């Protein structure tokens, strides 16, 4: 699908204006606009080394590889950026098949641990390209360093040997990974990649049982990992299975991808983005790379860019469904709500047996307050789910919310209880069920205990702490309510419901002026108070509150009568798991070294 032409950026009019606009856009994560302004600035002053350096990183991070290479050639000997410039030039040489030139560029002195591993693997792939297989395998074996090197070395050796026509070496290396599940804690991507690579090797060798065993080893640590499930079905059907890496370029791309994924969090995300874009220059249609790039774009709130990456995922890829579903969610967050609903309704028709399609549709329908249709979608998702799978607690939780919002408590309560049966320590569920009971003056003691447990699990969640404060309020323990609600307001200062609750609690402990202040604050909160909330708050500002005693409140609770109180907005509860959420285990991976590459934002 060809890219949609973008409108040209404004002419900055001066070098300083263009440079400032580029840095501002870069800091906001809008690399597309940043690179356009850097181009303007370079057209005014093409000799500025500072400008060239900043532009090189922006071009590379934005995927404008040729522009990045052109600047890297000029900056190869500049000490502050030489490492990134030479890695870029080496990747370009490898891409073109000039393997000895690539090896020369990768010969960098005093690299960090992460750089040393990356350079050794890229050099080994270049050796394979030059026909020096033994030297390549020996280089991997001689790459020693941090304990976390082990799985990356074994995975790359397996891929190198496979591409080089040495299946026994590849098999031994990949099997060694799968025999030690603890290695998955360092890099789930390398572990799952090893399972896929070994399964593909065995399938091509005609060893179907061994191939399926390798797939199952990966699914044992990530049961919902779609690429392996997709591969398993293909092997079962007897299809021709492609190798994990079909060329030196694809293998080197996998090196950059898997190490990028290892650091793709927190401060390492900018470095990971550079790795991913370098990898993409070697393997432009790699679906895992496109998904990873889309995820980083989403983190930067560049939703149109994320959608464009998802649209590039090949139709025959195992990642195509994930991409389709995530497009629907991103359309919603990009405020293209009708388009999002249409897209996801089409997705459930295209993928009628995929529960993720129904949960993605339910997410946007719930956000649109179409709770009846959301419940219908979740009914289908639950039908497709495996019985009593603890990972499916969220389906019952979300359906419980949909029922509760329709005032169908007789259906909602069993779903919340089922969610807790499947996963007893889910703070969202403990909070929602406990809060609901307290707010309806039912099961106050049990509801209070649930909310306390939720606070223990999420001690910095203002909404859950608000629930605890409101439970104390319902019990007539106003001083305790004030203590908790003040904590909640400190953490989530603009929420109208929390400020309203604190105003009520202040009123009952005699702090009337502060109560009115909190109610007024609730009226200007974010998100805006609902019309019903607004009317109640305005009435309290005019007339204050009655002062029922704790005994009266407790009597109402014992009788099952509901106090005349508006239920807190369910929008404060966490949303369902997005379709594109990680399906792999959490990693214990190396941090990006500070000198690996400068960050792309300032």
Automatic annotation (TrEMBL):
Tagged with keyword DNA damage: no
Pfam families membership: TPR_1, TPR_11, TPR_16, TPR_8
Chain intervals for the UniProt region annotation (Disordered): 539-602
Taxonomic lineage: Bacteria, Pseudomonadati, Pseudomonadota, Alphaproteobacteria, Hyphomicrobiales
Keywords for this protein: TPR repeat
InterPro entries: TPR-like_helical_dom_sf, TPR_rpt
Segments annotated as TPR repeats: 355-388, 393-426, 462-495
UniProt-recorded name of the protein: Tetratricopeptide repeat protein
Low complexity bias spans: 577-602
Keyword Chloroplast among UniProt keywords: no
């Amino acid at each position: 699908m060809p890219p949609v032409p973008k409108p040209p950026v404004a002419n900055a009019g001066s070098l300083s204006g263009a440079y400032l606009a580029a840095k501002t856009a870069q800091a906001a994560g809008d690399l597309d606009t940043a690179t356009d302004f850097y181009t303007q600035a370079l057209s005014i002053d093409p000799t500025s080394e500072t400008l060239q350096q900043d532009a090189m990183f922006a071009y590379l991070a934005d995927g404008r590889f040729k522009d990045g290479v052109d600047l890297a050639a000029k900056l190869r000997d500049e000490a502050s950026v030489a490492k990134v410039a030479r890695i870029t030039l080496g990747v370009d040489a490898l891409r073109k098949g000039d393997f000895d030139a690539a090896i020369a560029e990768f010969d960098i002195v005093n690299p960090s641990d992460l750089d040393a591993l990356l350079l050794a693997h890229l050099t080994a792939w270049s050796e394979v390209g030059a026909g020096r297989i033994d030297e390549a395998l020996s280089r991997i074996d001689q790459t020693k360093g941090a304990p976390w090197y082990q799985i990356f070395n074994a995975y790359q050796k397996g891929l190198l040997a496979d591409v080089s026509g040495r299946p026994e070496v590849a098999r031994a290396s990949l099997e060694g990974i799968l025999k030690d599940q603890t290695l998955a804690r360092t890099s789930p991507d390398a572990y799952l990649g090893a399972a896929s690579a070994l399964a593909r090797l065995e399938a091509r060798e005609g060893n179907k049982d061994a191939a399926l065993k390798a797939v199952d080893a990966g699914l044992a640590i990530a049961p919902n990992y779609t690429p392996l499930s997709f591969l398993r079905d293909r092997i079962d059907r007897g299809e021709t299975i492609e190798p994990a890496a079909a060329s030196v370029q694809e293998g080197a791309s996998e090196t950059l991808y898997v190490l990028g994924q290892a650091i793709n969090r927190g401060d390492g995300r900018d470095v990971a983005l550079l790795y991913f874009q370098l990898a993409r220059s070697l393997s432009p249609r790699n679906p895992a790379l496109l998904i990873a790039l889309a995820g980083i774009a989403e983190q930067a709130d560049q939703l149109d860019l994320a959608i464009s990456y998802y649209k590039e995922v090949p139709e025959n890829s195992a990642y195509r469904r994930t991409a389709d579903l995530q497009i629907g969610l991103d359309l919603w967050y990009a405020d293209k709500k009708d388009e999002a609903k249409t897209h996801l309704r089409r997705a459930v028709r295209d993928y009628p047996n995929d529960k993720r399609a129904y949960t993605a549709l339910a997410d946007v329908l719930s956000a649109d307050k179409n709770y009846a249709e959301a419940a219908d979608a979740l009914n289908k998702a639950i039908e497709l789910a495996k019985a009593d799978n603890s990972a499916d607690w969220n389906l019952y939780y979300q359906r419980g919310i949909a029922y509760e919002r329709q005032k169908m408590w007789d259906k909602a309560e069993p779903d919340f209880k089922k969610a807790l049966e499947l996963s007893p320590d889910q703070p969202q569920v403990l909070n929602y069920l406990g809060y609901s009971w307290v707010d309806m003056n039912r099961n106050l003691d049990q509801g209070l205990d649930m909310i306390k447990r939720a606070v223990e699990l999420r001690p910095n969640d203002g909404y859950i702490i608000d629930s605890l404060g409101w439970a104390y309020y319902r019990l007539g323990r106003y001083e305790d309510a004030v203590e908790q609600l003040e904590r909640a307001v400190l953490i989530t200062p603009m929420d109208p419901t929390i400020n309203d609750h604190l105003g009520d609690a202040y009123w009952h402990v005699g702090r009337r002026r502060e109560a009115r202040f909190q109610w007024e604050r609730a009226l200007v909160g974010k998100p805006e108070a609902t019309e019903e909330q607004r009317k109640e708050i305005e009435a309290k500002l005019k007339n204050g509150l009655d002062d029922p005693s704790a005994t009266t409140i407790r009597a109402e609770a014992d009788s099952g009568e509901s106090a005349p109180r508006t239920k807190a907005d369910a929008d404060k509860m966490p949303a369902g798991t997005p379709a594109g959420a990680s399906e792999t285990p959490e990693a214990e991976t190396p941090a990006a070294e500070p000198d690996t590459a400068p960050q792309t934002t300032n």
